[in-house]
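Annex B. Sample input.
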Amino acid sequence: MSGVANVSRVRALYKRILVLHRFLPLHLRALGDQYVKEEFRRHKGVTEVEAGRFMVEWENYKDTLQAQVLEAAGRGPGSVKFGANLAEQRLSDFQNEQIGQLYELMLESTKPNKQFDIREDER
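Annex B, continued. Sample output.
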C-alpha cells in the first residue's frame, strides 16, 4: 500500500473513532478524544511494522465501540456499558510505558466526574 493510501486510511480511522465518541457519555468522550489524539500523534513516525500493529488495534477498538453504540441506540441511553475487559495474557504484549498509560486511563475513566454532570431541569 502506498504512503498516500496509508495516510488516507489512518485519517479515515481517526475521524471515524472521533465520530463514534460523540455517542459516549460526556466524561468518556472528553477522555477518549484526548487519548485518541495523543496516541495518533505519538505514532506518526513509527516503523511500518509498528504502524500495522497500531492500525489493527485501533480498528478493533473502532469495531467494538461501533457495536456498543449500535446496541445503546437499540436499548436506550445508560443501558449499555461501554468498553471491554482486557485479557490478562494480552498485558504481556504491552511495554511498561503502555501498562502505565493503561492504568492511568483506567483511573481517569472510573473516577466520578461531576464537571460533566449535565441534567435537564425537572418541571
